Automatic annotation (TrEMBL):
InterPro entries: N-reg_PII (IPR002187), N-reg_PII-like_a/b (IPR011322), N-reg_PII/ATP_PRibTrfase_C (IPR015867), N-reg_PII_CS (IPR017918), N-reg_PII_urydylation_site (IPR002332). One of its GO terms (biological process) is regulation of nitrogen utilization. The modification O-UMP-tyrosine is found at residue 51. This is Nitrogen regulatory protein P-II. Keywords: Nucleotide-binding, Phosphoprotein, Transcription, Transcription regulation. Homotrimer. PROSITE patterns: PII_GLNB_CTER, PII_GLNB_DOM, PII_GLNB_UMP. It comes from Tepidicaulis marinus. In nitrogen-limiting conditions, when the ratio of Gln to 2-ketoglutarate decreases, P-II is uridylylated to P-II-UMP. P-II-UMP allows the deadenylation of glutamine synthetase (GS), thus activating the enzyme. Conversely, in nitrogen excess P-II is deuridylated and promotes the adenylation of GS. P-II indirectly controls the transcription of the GS gene (glnA). P-II prevents NR-II-catalyzed conversion of NR-I to NR-I-phosphate, the transcriptional activator of glnA. When P-II is uridylylated to P-II-UMP, these events are reversed. One of its GO terms (cellular component) is cytosol. Belongs to the P(II) protein family. It comes from the Bacteria. One of its GO terms (molecular function) is ATP binding.
């Protein structure tokens, strides 16, 4: 199993969720986060004063999937979240040692199946 972690622009949240749903992935955790990378923040204007925001709002997706669909999930997220501009985000794929569905006790691939 794999844990796919994607950090994307907040405006791309619905597009990513719709694209994942289209390939049959419905189980995910979505979190509002802030981050700092090559984008180096952004300039904001508040009450006429300009200031630098170093932590930019992003959305994090955590998706546990079977090994055989991990590449498809990564490709799907990449296509849905891409604008071609700086700050589009990153996708990480981690090995997932174990998963347990609390309600039924199912383990591993059965626990993450949608």
């Amino acid at each position: 199993m794999k844990l796919v972690v994607a950090i994307v622009k907040p405006a791309m949240t619905n597009a990513v969720m719709d694209a994942l749903s289209a390939i049959g992935v419905s189980g995910m955790t979505v979190t509002e986060v802030k981050g700092h990378g090559r984008q180096k923040g952004q300039t904001e204007i508040y009450r006429g004063a300009e200031y630098q925001v170093t932590l930019v709002p992003k959305v994090r997706f955590d998706i546990a999937v079977a090994d055989d669909i991990a590449d498809k999930v990564v490709e799907t997220i990449g296509k849905a979240a891409k604008t071609g501009k700086i700050g589009d985000g990153k996708i990480f794929v981690l090995d997932l040692e174990q998963a347990v569905r609390i309600r039924t006790g199912e383990r591993d691939a059965e626990a993450v199946a949608t």
